[in-house]
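thread: overnight batch results

M.L. [08:02]
morning all. the overnight job finished for the chain we discussed friday. pasting input first so we're all looking at the same thing
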Amino acid sequence: MSAADQREARGRAGAREQVSLLEIGTFLIGAALGSFIYRLLVEILLELDVVLKEPAYDDAGARDAVLQIGPWVALLAGAGTLLWAVRRTHEHASRRVIVGAALLGAGIACSVWGAVDMHGLGLYDWEPGSPAGLLDVVYHGAGVIVAIVGYALMAAPPRAERDAEIQRSRRRDT
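M.L. [08:03]
and the structure it wrote out:
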């Protein structure tokens, strides 16, 4: 029985649901990848003159250090957690849960970095004359949507259970 199946069985029985080490490791790797993607996206937007650097952008040394080192730390911690989980606990999880955890981590990382940089620290803003409201929704909303899709993948019941429910539903309808 996979970790997702075990969680589902505990959830139906009313037991407290626990997050597996595989999900934690994959989430950390997803957060690292989301941070790398965010950094790349900001550089592209700066090159395309879509965003305007604020004077504080050049003075954001601590933020730059965290954005440079943090993703690598998360990547190493996630990889270490995954290796430990697989070798020591022999955990198994479905691809759906693994992909969901990675998407959840990436979406949260992109959304948090974007909100902190743009609205918290005021490091950059949209170029004057651009549809700032629409760009904010797309820019920040993309990370939120990725995180929601990741969570939905993780929370969905295992395929065997879904297939059985569909079969029961079809039998009731006939």
